Amino acid sequence: MQVSTIDLQFLGEEAAIASFAVQDDAGYTLVECGPFASHERLLAGLEEAGISPDDVHTLLLTHIHFDHAGAAWWWANRGVKVYVHPRGLKHMIDPTRLYNSAARIYGEANMERLWGKMEQIEPNRIAAVADREQLSIGGNNWTAHHTPGHASHHIAWQVGDIVFTGDVGGVMIKGGPVVPPCPPPDIDVVAWDASLDRLASLNANAFYLTHYGKVSPEGHLEALGKRLHSYVDWIAERKTPTTKTEDLVPGFTKMLEEELRSEGVEEAVIGAYRAANPPYMSVAGIVRWLDSL
Question: How far apart, in whole angstroms, are the C-alpha atoms of residue 51 and residue 130?
Fold first, then answer.
């Protein structure tokens, strides 16, 4: 099966966000489309791979966060069929709440630079898929695995013996270690553990991570689960009833980046990790989850 990995060069960083074009008998299925701010780079990357936008007939979204789904409306407007988790469907049809939530997190002034615009998708151009639902697309048989933890509206997409893991499979860039992206608002560590068990049960030969690219499943999920719990423990040990979330960010960032350097990650690659998985976001997400217990 031919899978083309397109580097969206998010914020000028290599290997921070990927989109995947999977060839089939009808053309191409796109897994993830990235934010509209990176849309021109996606089109250029497809062209470099010999793929025209007209060749794309289906878009599969792992979840509705802007770095994965922000440009979905553009593809839908071209007649591409979009598939998404049921919890994400209404937010793609009317992205007002999704946009406003992101603006609160990132700041209204940063929205255009980071994500670009996000427009609504007509209801007849997008569909929700149930857990374990199978879709026959261009001769390929896809299975949707509902995999909450990073987000309640998350799907890992399986075709044959490969799985597109979105963010539930972590961030792993240029041979560095796998790390968990933990942004607010709905990190759920217990659900994430269960989703890792689901992924392990699929016996995949390859994972394709949106951040970033093809990785071997061997030891991957175990390492991700271990690091997820180490991050939670680090914050839980330092958090008090009066602790401000922002006060935890410098120490957490230092810990995380020292960990990357200790495993031989170069400074340029640390920049890609930072773009794909901002440390302050993980602090906010984990604090929010701990407060919910």
Answer: 30
CA distance 54 to 66: 23
Digitized pLDDT (tens) for each residue of the chain, 293 residues in all: 899 999 999 999 999 999 999 999 999 999 999 999 999 999 999 999 999 999 999 999 999 999 999 999 999 999 999 999 999 999 999 999 999 989 988 899 999 999 999 999 999 999 999 999 999 999 999 999 999 999 999 999 999 999 999 999 999 999 999 999 999 999 999 999 999 999 999 999 999 999 999 999 999 999 999 999 999 999 999 999 999 999 999 999 999 999 999 999 999 999 999 999 999 999 999 999 999 99
Residue 92 lies in domain: 3-292
Predicted TM-score (pTM) of the model is: 0.97
Domains contained in the chain, number = 1
Alpha-helix residue ranges (DSSP H) falling in 124-242: 189-201, 220-238
Q: Which residue has the tokens 């191409």?
A: 28
Q: Read off the CATH number of the domain in which 56 is found.
A: 3.60.15.10
